[in-house]
Amino acid sequence: MIPTRRPARRLLAVASVGVACALVLSACSADTSSPDTTAAPEWEYTAETAAPTGDIDSFSWVSYSEPYSLDYAYAFDYADNQVLSNVCESLLRLNPDYTLSPGLAEAFEHPTPETWVYTIRDGVTFHDGTPLAAADVVASLSRHLDPEVGSSWYSVYQNVAAIEQTGDRQVTVTMTQADSQFNLAMGGSAGVVESAATLAEKGADYGNSSGLVNCTGPFALTEWKSGESVTLTRYDDYWDDTLRARAGEVEMLFMSDSNARVNALKSGEVDGGWMIPTDAIAQLQSAGKGDVYFGLNTAVGSLVVSNLEGPLGDLRVRQALMMAMDRQGILDAAAKGYGELTDALTTESVWVGASDAALDEAFEGLEEYPYDIEAAKKLIDEAGVAGEEIVIATAPIGNDFAVISQGAAAAAQSIGLTATIETVSPSAYTALFSDPSAREGVDLFYTSWYLSSPDPLEMYGVLRTGEFSNYGNWSDPEFDALANEAVAIDDPAERSEVTAQAQRIANEQLPWLPLFEGPMTVFLGDRVTGVAPSVAFLYFPWAATIGSR
User: Fold this and answer.
1) Which H or E element spans position 319?
2) For burial by CB atoms within 10 Å, which of 117, 189, 311, 400 has the most?
3) Residues whose CB falls within 8 Å of the CB of residue 151, separated by 6 or more in sequence, listed in order
4) Helix, strand, or coil here: 394?
5) Alpha carbon distance 131, 115 (integer Å)
6) 6 or 90: whose pLDDT is higher?
7) How far is residue 159's CA from residue 139's CA, in Å, rounded to a whole number?
């Protein structure tokens, strides 16, 4: 769940609670027998929790981590965006069902393949009371092009030639080539608009605990106690009456210890939280202090292959490791069965507008990697890498991190590799996604990688040769050609058929090792209701919809 990069997307993982190794099957031993399976827990999707009966003075929320930054240019993970989504707004709005609708741009046009024209909404003010203008949009978007800023969202802007004010309330973005993904990304952090005057005034302090931010959302960021909490206060002059905040104030507490988070929810000390540790779901459901809800997710839990110069540079070794991992056992232990195995790096939820043929191509008949130790050993022998070392990075963020790193290590050792687990701090783990030097000597690390736009090409754009988030520097010319071809296709159905071919190549070449997908979870205490339990909470102003139960 966490952190930053310069190109396309997200990172981290669903935090779980509990001890690790004791729960894991072959993850903690080199058992080569067939894995035991357990009955999956029963759960169902909820699109929207019950509507509030009224407003509420305040409510409290818990986050697994303090934001890395609330500068939208660096807001690239769960902890950052769950705060920013309530305070800052984008040109478009990403809704809980993963559709896009007008945001600070009341309309947009696409007059040529290389131009996007946005009409900026009138009557909107920043939290300091100054009116939103087209110049603010130009200044905000242009930061992503500035190498001195080093935006985590640069990949969205890599084909941008110019961002210009072309009318009183009009901004035109000119591309160097057709790029379907640019507009789709305007519903996330890449499309956030901040006051140009604030950006100039705050400088290097913008978005940190002293500089804060000055945006247009239903809440203003009024306090950030470093290491403790942030406080959001209702902005009474918010422009959209349908999303006027129901709460006068929200206090969001940072609790890195998963046991502490769960105890705070169980006791009623805090009113809610996202991404509930799966080990704690049953406890919370039976505690009588509230309810756990399950909603739409776009994340796939995967192991990022961050070093292709070592043993994992041989495809046979990546295939062997996939086959040596008891993925069902890992899912049961890390996520308590809340989810399902997958051989793809995307979920069907992001294939919005895809053709039936594309969905069949993308998901049916993918290469499978069944649990088979003996077959995996043969691949290791063929590759001639027996005894070589791989390093797996992990952090004390949640039980899932421990389970997955230990499961991968046990799998590697069971087929003749030497595996070392390197445990780092949560902040150092975040750096793996943004700092190439932090990945030196690391072969694998876990991510729950979510997509922030309704298109699977966002994922596969990341894996093109030379992309910042292509952490292992994987390269495949056929894959690159398909991804580049798809980018230029506006029609989502037609684009999906090309993207499906790219998904199949990723499935066969394993630049990342897909493990499982599961629902987004949220806990609501007895005092509050009204939130949509969707991963769109990263960009949709979810806290504004919460009121009294």
Assistant:
1) helix 315-324
2) 400
3) 6, 73, 74, 143, 144, 145, 157
4) strand
5) 26
6) 90
7) 18
